[in-house]
Amino acid sequence: MRMNGRWIMAAATFACGIAMSAPAQADWVPPFKGNDTGGIIAYALYQQGADIKAMAVDHCARYGKVVKLTGADAQYGGYISFACVWVPPGSADRPLRAAY
Fold first, then answer.
1. Three-point CA angle 74, 57, 39, nearest 5°
2. Backbone phi, then psi, for 78, in 5-degree steps?
3. By C-alpha distance, which of 60, 43, 64 is closest to 52?
4. Within a 10 A sphere around the Cβ of 80, how many other Cβ atoms?
5. Where in the chain are the domains?
6. I need a surface site. Which of 41, 46, 68, 79 has the fewest CB within 10 A?
7. Distance CA 78, CA 98 (A)
């Protein structure tokens, strides 16, 4: 009975040692990511001269919504966030997709 407890303790110590020795890995995030509720665009794309407004409009138009820019973290590694909102009631215009 006492031997089983030692084996469990040794296995747990070994498992913790393996987990602690694994190198930390940061996940890679694409420069443009979104879904039907909104998304983020890497600030680096803005610095490279990309038309981020057109990218966001095109993305939201796929879902029949319009874009609302919500914020910008203007620093290295920052993101520009946007929300896709429904077309206001009474609006005659539907969202258009950018052709370029």
1. 55
2. -80, 170
3. 43
4. 22
5. 30-86
6. 68
7. 25
